[in-house]
Amino acid sequence: MAVRKISLKGTFNTRDFGGYTGMNGRQVKWGTFFRSDALNNLTEEDVTILEKLGIKTVVDFRSEKEISQAPDILPAGIKYVNLSPNAPIAALASGNMHDDQSKIAKLVEIAEKNEGETYFAQRLDEMSEEMRKLVRESFSNKKYQAYLRLLLNPDNLPILHHCRGGKDRAGFAAILVLAVLGVSKEEIKLDYMQTKNNMEERNKKRMKEYEQFTNNETVLTYLSGLMQTKERYFEAAYDEIEKIAGSMDNYLKQVMDLSSEDINTIREYYLYE
Predict the structure, then answer these.
(1) What's the family (predicted)?
(2) Has domain 15-270 been given CATH number 3.90.190.10?
């Protein structure tokens, strides 16, 4: 029986994104595509679970700094690919205790300046802009192109992709995969928003950690907003796609550099008959 949520002790947002309805009513294959938060806290039992899932490739969308601070723990023999799209706001949104204190100290310093209120007011929807950058910037495009090209070789799958929190950089990758497979925007949004439930307890814990370093409400509100999974972040990505290419189909072909033949090949590989 297929299970959406993969229960690992060392993660909070690992899941199979099979089962959605793709092109011509064909279902996305289970046990093929997985998304997650970072894999640096996996237990031996978790590693065994990944082995049993048969995962062949892990794609890590984190930055070099994030990786050096918290390298993945993986089963032996797995192909590891780093494709960081250069998304500093997403990295900030899912930071850890190692860099929280200095990060928050800088934010408090800004908040206490005369222009602090204006600074944060202009950044209340910063994550929406980050999603737009993932869509439009050339450097980011190349990383997601490389990810999608991995799907053209079935020997690379099952595949698991992740960033630190599994929300934004990994979320955009999941949007693209499901779109290639012909899943509707409505179902893709359901998958994106599932992260909200998965991260609820983790976000409460993170806020308590932040509160150890400051009681500045402006800073705490800003950090809380970055951690949230909001529909407008998802919609920002789609809006930018339509601005650039007119439609998701055009975006996949013109910006992600997939031919009609590539798209059909991926669908034949990863949709049930």
Answers:
(1) Belongs to the protein-tyrosine phosphatase family.
(2) yes
